[in-house]
Write a structure and sequence with these properties.
The complex is a heterodimer of chains A (339) and B (251). Chain A is an all-alpha fold and 339 residues long. Chain A contains 15 helices and two strands. Chain A has a single domain, classed as ABC transporter involved in vitamin B12 uptake, BtuC, CATH 1.10.3470. Helices cover 75% and strands 1% of the residues of chain A. The two termini of chain A are 18 Å apart. The chains are: A mainly alpha (339), B alpha/beta (251). At the A-B interface, helix 9, helix 10 and helix 11 of A face helix 2, helix 3 and helix 4 of B.
């Protein structure tokens, strides 16, 4: 062990060196570059952005606050159906629909969170799973509202009254990217805040936090709702950009995929969600082309390799590359090393 | 002392099934008190602390803190009212730096811990004060070290720094020097001697040297009941105490 404080996540984010600002720009530059080069893959790009947002929401709840959950699909689906129903019955404005779906999901999560967040570990895991399954079955049965197995198809107005959703998915992609950016800034700021630090504390030692006077349960309900709101936004985006919502948005598979993406990318670094989701979708796409039946095998192998050999997911590699690059740059430009 | 005690416990009872772990315990801690709670293993010392802090619910009895009843109040609500404790078993945030461990506690005390977006100045203040708190217990030089990298003695000191940063009126020290090598425990004793005189302190400790040096009154707990209480000199002479607790070592 070295004497250097070994705390990559929060400290690295908080330190605002010029190099780090550059690093922050990388994912967004890649996303913009993708927009100009993707061609027919743009809708795949949109679904990656949606999954990034879902994984990011999971990072807040699972990564930072340590809420063991397999139920985020419930919020993803809740947001998706919320956006669809709002568009069908109230107003087709996408931004308005997104906000309403997000808020509704937050309320739903606050209510269910209050019920289950006094539990921990496997009990909590099972309860999140149970809520997810109940919601799925409820949506399946409520055929008149949700369309059941057939799902719902709906129309979307132009974004901000200006940009119509086009056949090539250009508007959809940029719309999703803008929403992701807003949520990312919120999350990035939040994890450094005293609120975020208290979540770090709750994950590591609830007895300690109670002993310093933290209302642990309330704080967990708060982050659970915020995280769910984000997942709801992701679901709403997914519905709006495809103008369709189906039962699969509520399926357990979505929760599982989000967890896999998070673990692949690395927890508690926010950008882990970007890396994990992108790699997952791309690998899935390529592997499915090579063999449509065994693509899961490749994903599974990737996950095993990550968990066994990479302590901090793929972001762990990025950290090492980043440190190396920084040292090299410093040597070249003769910058004084950071304290 | 005529003023009302800061912490006042009356008739506190707790049973685990047929086992009585607290039998009608009375205790008063006036301002600046230095009371030692001793007793053999299983006497119910830690249970008593857990009853005071609200981790356990008493079957009967009442607790008043600063003249106000805190019965039925959850632990996290008792803390802002001035009741702080240290833990016998380590509960520190091992992945955080020593500084952050204290700063997080200060943020909680100052009600900054709900802040999500505008927090730069407030957090800086928390960190500045945290630095001062670490200096008070003499570990400011390791402020940026991860807690998991600190030697055990410094972890215990950090524990005390966190409790002090909550600005308590009553401080419960649950075996502050337990498990610390004797070379380092001297430092802990010095810190204990320097604790602010206004705080009422209840110390639970196995090490008789610590208790007899530190406490001005000692309460002896046996099987959940108060056997006797008195000054260290009285307790040392008491034959009952020798019989149940000090045993051979006191001879």
């Amino acid at each position: 062990m070295t004497d250097i404080p070994d705390k990559p996540q929060a400290a690295a984010l908080a330190r605002s060196s010029r190099f780090n600002v550059l690093w922050h720009a990388v994912p967004w530059i890649v996303a913009i570059a993708f927009y100009y080069t993707a061609g027919g893959f743009l809708s795949l790009g949109t679904s990656i952005l949606v999954m990034i947002l879902l994984t990011l929401s999971l990072d807040l709840a699972l990564g930072y606050a340590g809420i063991i959950t397999l139920g985020h699909a419930a919020f993803f689906g809740f947001g998706a159906y919320g956006a669809a129903l709002f568009s069908l019955h109230v107003n087709t404005d996408p931004v308005l629909g997104l906000l309403v779906a997000t808020a509704a999901t937050a309320v739903f999560a606050a209510l269910t969170g209050m019920l289950i967040l006094h539990t921990q570990g496997i009990t909590l895991l099972m309860l999140t799973l149970a809520i997810s399954v109940l919601l799925y079955e409820a949506a399946n049965r409520a055929y008149k509202i949700t369309g059941g197995d057939d799902g719902l198809q709906f129309e979307m107005g132009p974004v901000l009254g200006l940009f119509r959703f086009d056949l090539w998915g250009k508007t959809a992609y940029l719309y999703a990217l803008a929403v992701l950016l807003v949520w990312f800034i919120v999350a990035w700021r939040m994890v450094q805040s005293p609120f975020g630090r208290s979540l770090d504390g709750i994950r590591q030692s609830p007895p300690r936090m109670k002993a310093i006077g933290t209302p642990v349960w309330w704080r967990l309900v708060a982050i659970y709702s915020i995280s769910a709101a984000m997942a709801g936004t992701a679901g709403a985006l997914s519905a709006q950009t495809t103008r369709f919502v189906g039962l699969n948005t509520l399926g357990i598979l979505i929760s599982g995929i989000a967890v896999v993406m998070l673990v692949l990318g690395g927890t508690r670094r926010l950008y882990g969600a970007f890396l994990g989701a992108a790699i997952y979708v791309v690998v899935q796409d390529y592997a499915a082309k090579v063999n449509p039946f065994y693509w899961m095998f490749v994903i599974g192998a990737l996950l095993m390799a990550t968990v066994l050999f990479l302590e901090n997911g793929l972001m762990g590699i990025m950290d090492k590359v980043g440190t190396l690059a920084r040292d090299q740059l410093r040597r070249v430009f003769g910058q004084p090393s950071q304290p | 002392m005529n003023e009302e005690p800061i912490l006042s416990v009356r008739g506190l009872c707790k049973n685990f099934g047929a086992l009585a772990v607290a039998q009608s315990i009375d205790l008063d801690l006036p301002r600046g008190a230095r009371v030692g709670l001793i007793g053999p293993n299983g006497a119910g010392k830690t249970t008593f602390v857990n009853l005071l802090t609200g981790v356990l619910r008493p079957d009967a009895g009442s607790i008043r803190l600063g003249g106000v009843s805190i019965d039925g109040m959850p632990p996290e609500k008792r803390v802002p009212r001035g009741l702080a404790r240290t833990h016998q078993i380590n509960t520190l945030l091992m992945e955080e730096s020593a500084l952050d461990n204290v700063a997080i506690a200060i943020a909680e005390r100052e009600k900054h811990a709900w802040r999500m977006f505008r927090f730069g100045r407030q957090w800086q203040q928390c960190c500045d004060e945290a630095h001062a708190r670490l200096a008070e217990v003499g570990i400011a030089d390791v402020a940026d070290r991860r807690v998991s990298q600190l030697p055990y003695g410094q972890q215990r000191l950090l524990e005390i720094a966190i409790a002090l940063s909550l600005k308590p009126s009553v401080l419960l020290l649950d075996e502050p020097a337990a498990g610390v090598p004797s070379a380092e425990s001297r430092v802990i004793h010095e810190v204990l001697d320097r604790l602010p005189s206004g705080i009422a302190i209840l110390i639970i400790e196995h090490d008789m040297d610590v208790v007899f040096r530190f406490a001005r009154e000692i309460v002896v707990l046996v099987r959940g009941a108060v056997l006797t209480r008195g000054t260290p000199a009285e307790i040392a002479k008491n034959p009952d105490v020798r019989a149940v607790y000090l045993g051979k070592s006191a001879a």
